[in-house]
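hey so u asked for the seq, here:
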Amino acid sequence: MADTMLTILGSGTCVPSLSRNPCSVLAEIDNQKLLFDTGPGTMKRLLEAGVELVDITYIFYSHFHPDHTGEMATFLFSTKYPDETSRKKPLTIIAGKGVIAFFERFKDVYGSWIELPEGIFSIIEMDNMGKDSKNFSWFSVDTAPVEHNSESIAFKITDTKGKSFVYSGDTDVSTGLISLSADTDLLICESALPDELKVSGHLTPSLAGDIASQANVKKLVLTHFYPECDKVDIEKQCRKTYAGPLILAEDLMTIKL
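ran it, structure tokens below
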């Protein structure tokens, strides 16, 4: 059984960048490929990582902002392309409460162009008012609400070896994220702006570090960087509150769980 591998597909934000795509992370667990958020440019990054769209079996959405869902419709539309590589594996979308209504609004615009065949496509809504969990053959998922939008949730994935990682999505300081991340092997945490530019609904390096320390995570990955982050020492700011292994995300970086 192979180790779970993670690839940062997008480490940036809504601000256009030649080096950082908006948010997306790929997780490869056995023969399953899980996608977390689909910001603009995700499909191209997948191809650069050597992954075909039809290989993705689950898409997890942390919330519905465009820099996290921007390629939902185009992903589904591209999946319908009728050739020898067309989708045969089922695709499941998992997100907080409201994702079914969100998808239906997309269908009001695009209609059948984003509808996949019956038995191939499903949507699962997770509770965004408290903790929730689901078990699948290759992994389990636990969720908790975080401080950003009403639908915002963070995901904890645990593989069959018992290794786990948490994907925070966008969040401010959140007791739910701390609880969900407790003792996890890896926390992929947003760190949108430097400490001195803190805004509501987002974390800074020292706040993300404090969450990781309180949760006793084994390794911390900071991501979701606005351009202002490239002008300061993000690692130094995080080290005010976190002393463990630290990675600053870059697009197409791979991490073994």
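The chain has one domain: 5-256. The first strand starts at residue 5 and ends at 10.
lmk if thats what u needed
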